[in-house]
Amino acid sequence: MSDLGQHAMFGEAIANRAERRSEERFPIIRTAKLVYGDVEMPCVLRDISNSALRVRIYEPIPDDMQGIELEFGDGDRHSVDLVWQRDGHAGLRFPQFADLRSLVGEKGPFRKRAIRIGVDLPSSVTALGTRHEVKIEDVSHQGARIRCDHPLSIGQQVRIAVPSLGEIYAVVRWREQPVYGLAFIETFRFEDVAHMAGNLQAISRVWRRDHPRKPVVRPAPLKRAVNF
After folding, report:
1. Straight-line distance from the first to the last Cα atom of the chain, in angstroms, rounded to the nearest whole number
2. Mean pLDDT by 10 residues, the chain (228 residues)
């Protein structure tokens, strides 16, 4: 065999090995959520390669679902396609090559934080013995974001009623009135909220249906007087 042929075979072997290495699966445990339609489903990454991953899911995904995105707590998002699902796990494929570093580490626009499930849940908080109506806008196993017309103080302890979770003691961590961030005094396991996410979002859909958002009506621009 000529040297040229040997070099060609060697180059092909190296390319095949590099391709196999790029598809090598790595075990990983990282929380995230799958976003599709009006659903936000918590999940846990279990193993990953540059083209696919396996995740632990807590609700079945519609088999014909399109436009699925994988979102991490830091806000980093990746488009994925559903390949299979069984026994509480799903196989997902990246339509485009993914950088493993962005999947293993935190590369998104926000600092690392708990996976939050967006909801619209009517609720109430009790502060200093008085109950106030609120709306829960997102919830995680560590806390919640609420909208409350009554002023609350940073560091104030409150008791909030969360559907499916009951009444929970929490502390106000930040505020951008009328929106407040609450940290639960006793946090839940990620799996606890993941199992309840579907029910919480179902309640949200009913609330949104019965309380459609009113269109924003902007005042017409004033006509300037014309001086002759």
Report:
1. 96
2. 44 41 74 93 90 92 92 88 95 79 58 84 93 95 95 96 90 96 94 90 86 58 53
